[in-house]
Every structure is written in structure tokens, then in C-alpha cells.
Amino acid sequence: MEVLNKNKKAVASRFILLGLILLVLGMTFGLIGSFQYIIPGFAKHILSFEQVRPLHVSSVVFWIISGAIGAMFTYLQEYNNKAIFSTLLLKIQFYLFLSTFTLICISYLMSVFGGREYWEFPPILGIPMLISWVLLIINFFKSLRTLQHQPVYIWMWLTGVIFFLITFLESYLWLSPFFRNYIIKDITIQWKSYGSMVGSWNMLIYGSSLFCLEKISGNKKYGHSKIAFLLYFTGLFNLMFNWGHHIYTLPTHHYVKHISYFVSMTELFIIGRIIYLWKSSLTEAQKYFHILSYRFIVAADIWVFLTLLLAILMSIPGINVYTHGTHITVAHTMGATIGINTFLLLAFGFDILYKGKHHQQYARLPFWILNGSLFIFWISLIIAGILKARWQMDTHQIPFSSMMIQLRPFFILFTISGTALLISISYFVYLIMRNYLSNKK
What is the pTM for the complete model shown? Predict the structure, then answer.
């Protein structure tokens, strides 16, 4: 392998830069969709809701995947202190990734869909994505010197790249009539694959967060500690089995639901550990709070607690019957996607791309606006979900349109808070990209 230098690391940075653009793009589509919720027919002649929704979902999913790839390969090179096996393979993967997303957007704008929940684009576009990920796996394994005595984040990355490939292939089993012709089997596999896929990219992100924390603190012991590996195996256990709580409402085998319920409850251990680490790290947080990357990690830690608390409540069968298909599920998704994944990826963006003075006197207010607006956004969705859940179970239901009118104040609230979210996140994206481009000159 080649000795690590700035130019070699810059190839991996392209994924983070692309991801930041996709983040702003995805949130913009999300904001347009929220306006369409409260203003019927808003911008319908330009972008209908059936186009806006997949554009929003795909942009955000590709932001998470692209940012995670960039952080993983950058930190892998820093850990090895050598360049990756092949920058050429990484460049090919990047352009495959970029061209695939471009074609996906074009297909949505032309109202050409594939019919799936997350991968809503035509199935043929899954082929370049598959090739891109195979190149990633080759590059990753060739860049590793050995698997012996590796820290926990290496195992997290390894697990994430392998399981993403497995779950991605699994999500296309519906193309076979053996699965597609049986609705229960089809939906079960679809939800299972998506649930595990989220766990796969979480492995990439959480592994990078551990490396980033070690890098900031200078403490290299945690990556090899027993508790770190215990948390890793708990996460792996959840990745493989936690998807079951998505299918409580399907008439599948009871043992699947019971196992998934037990797995969901193991996350209580993670919550307990987070509380413990939070209390014991307060002085450390104060010490490093001027570093923007650390600031976002601290904020993500709080959102891990809130999101897992909501996830555990949703995993209880008696509660899940009410919450399934309501805005509570959306709140859980937004808390995880923005509060955890996006905050951690922004932390990596500041750590990797932002050079020079880390303390930004003009970043304090946007940081608190970002977190405050996200909390309001989250709470408004939960309240809307509770009201919809009560309507779903009411034996004397009012018309659906009347129920949606009752929810309108909360839709307005999450649209206002969503606007603040977009502005504040765009500001931090601007900070990173301006600093990176100015240092490139």
C-alpha cells in the first residue's frame, strides 16, 4: 500500500462532499412535501407529492450511505497510516454512485417508479449500485493488513459492508415470482431487508464515531475494551433480528414476533450504558465542546437516548398496534436519521474536511437552533401520531379528511420547525464546504 498523503485522502472526501449536497437537497424536497401537507396542490404542477416523497427519501438515504463511505475510508487510511488498496477502484465506485443517483432522480422526475418502499426507482438501477458496493468490499478487505487484534470499529465497518450487500440483494428477492406472488412473504422480506439494511449503515457510522472519539480524546483503549465489543455484538444482534417489530401486524409466525420483541428489549442495556457514559463524560464534554465535531457527537448521544426510548416503546406489541402506520413511526425515523446519523456524519465532515480554527463564534446560535427545531419537529410528529392512533382505534371514526384537519396545526408546526432545520443544517454544510474549498486553493 502507498504511504498516506493529502491527495489520497481527498478521493474518499468526495463521498462526504457529495453527501453534504444530497443532505441539503433531500431536506429541501422534504420541506416541499411538508408544504404539500398543509397547502393542498402546492407546487403540484412542478413536483407532485408522488415525486417529492421518493426524491426526499432517496436523497437522504444516499446522503447517509455516501457520508458513511467517505468517513470509513478516510478513517481506515488514518488508522493504517497508508493509502487504501486502490484509489482507482474508489474513483470508479464514486462515479458509479453519482451517476446512479442522477439516473434515479431523472426516473422520479419522469414519474418512472419501481414500486418499492425505499428503493422506489426502477430495479435496473440497482445493478450499478451492486457493482459499486462489490468494488467497495474488495477495496476494504484489500486495505486491511490483518483481522487479528483489530479494534472494534474495524469489525463494525467489516460487518456493515458485508451485511449491506446481503440485505441489498435480499431487498430484490421480490423480482422472483416465488416471493412476489405471495403478498405476506413479499412484505415480510421487504420490511426485514430494509430494517437490517439500516442496521448495516449504522455499523459504518457508529464505527466511525468510535474512531473519531478516539482521535479527539487521544485515548486508544476503548476500541479494544470488552464493553466496546459487547456493545458491538448487541448491535449485531439487533441488526440481524430487530427487524421483527416491523411485522407485528402481519399474520406471520408468532415465534418471529416473540424473538423480535426480546431483541428490542436488549436495547435497554444500550440506554443504560449511554446514561452512564453521559454522566461520566460531562467534564470531557465541557473540555472539548469548542470542537464542532465533538459538539455534534454530544448532540447525537442525546438523540440516541431519545430515539431508542421511543423505539423500545414502539417495539411493545400492545403499543405497536396503535403506533404502526402513524406519524410516530415517522418521528422515530426522523430522530434516527437527523438526530443520530446526520449529526454524526456532520461531526465526521468537520473532523475530516474542516481545517484550521475549530471554534466558530457564529456557530453557537445555529447549533442550538438546529437542536431546538429538531426537538419541536420530533414532538409535533409524535403528537400527530398519537391523535391518528386514537382515530384508527376509535369505533366511531370521523371521516379521514376531518381527522387530517384536526392534525393540521401540528403539520404547520413541523413545517415551520422543518424550515429552521433546513436553514441551520445548510449553514453548517456551507461552513464545511467553504473551508474545504478555500484550503484547496
Answer: 0.91
Q: Where are the domains of the chain?
A: 266-441
3-state secondary structure of 176: coil
Q: What is the pLDDT of residues 160-213, one digit of tens each?
A: 999 999 999 999 998 888 888 888 888 888 888 888 888 899 899 989 988 988
Sign of the CA dihedral 279, 284, 286, 292?
negative
DSSP tag of 335: I
State the chain's mean pLDDT as an integer: 85
Q: How far apart are CA 13 and CA 69, in angstroms?
A: 9
* Residue 270 cell numbers, joined: 444500550
CATH topology for the 266-441 domain: Cytochrome C Oxidase; Chain A (1.20.210)
* Res 334 pLDDT > 60: yes
Alpha helices in 171-291 (DSSP H): 177-180, 183-217, 226-241, 254-265, 267-280, 282-288
**Measured distance CA(140)–CA(166) in Å, rounded:** 16
- Are 308 and 267 in contact, with CB atoms under 8 Å apart? yes
